[in-house]
């Protein structure tokens, strides 16, 4: 099964292996956790491994001029039924702050999601990583300075993919592009550079 995910938690599914013959059906969720009257939800990325498809994103609430959010995960075990992974503030963020999952990838080690979290950055957002063995139960990788922090400016881990048996993630930190690598999805290293094209070019004189 292939899945296309769009803004507002809209999913289209197809069972056709050949895109020329694929028939697409829009999925209409009939269960809670997909946004609604009091909140809006956004799916940003999707990955499939070992019969489970996972979509990641966020759920937002409008509170005056603020739009606090939490990271969110949805999953399907290869059929047309989707469920929302149970929310836990310690994992996906507190609605009074702001977190969002922006990308997800999977290999034999499980699923890895990356994104942002505002609660730990003292005013600046920091990168965030979540892991799951099977796509249903998730853990937050403990925050580390490699993901940004006080005095480093905002850090966002915008996309993640697999590389061999490990993972590579990309994003930005302060005024620079950034790359992170991990062998297992839990311990991460930020790529170092000096006078590299990662840096923002100086403005013309």
Summary tags:
disordered N terminus, Tachylectin-2, Chain A, 205 residues, four-stranded antiparallel β-sheet, mainly beta, 46% strand, globular
Structure characterization notes:
- The protein is mainly β.
- It has one domain: 5 Propeller (Tachylectin-2, Chain A), CATH 2.115.10.20.
- Helix content is 2%, strand content 46%.
- It is built from one helix and 15 strands.
- The strands form four sheets. The chain has a four-stranded antiparallel sheet, with no helix packed on it. A four-stranded antiparallel sheet has the order 8-9-10-11.
- The protein is globular.
CATH architecture: 5 Propeller
Number of structural domains? 1
CATH class, named Mainly Beta
Span from first to last CA?
A: 54 Å
Helix content: under 10%
Element order: H for helix, E for strand: EEEEEEEHEEEEEEEE
In short:
This protein has 205 residues and is mainly beta. It is 2% helix and 46% strand.
Task: Summarize the topology.
Blueprint: E1 2-6, E2 10-14, E3 25-27, E4 40-49, E5 52-60, E6 69-76, E7 83-84, H1 89-92, E8 99-107, E9 110-117, E10 126-132, E11 139-140, E12 155-163, E13 166-173, E14 176-182, E15 189-190
Antiparallel strand pairs: 1-2, 2-3, 4-5, 5-6, 6-7, 8-9, 9-10, 10-11, 12-13, 13-14, 14-15
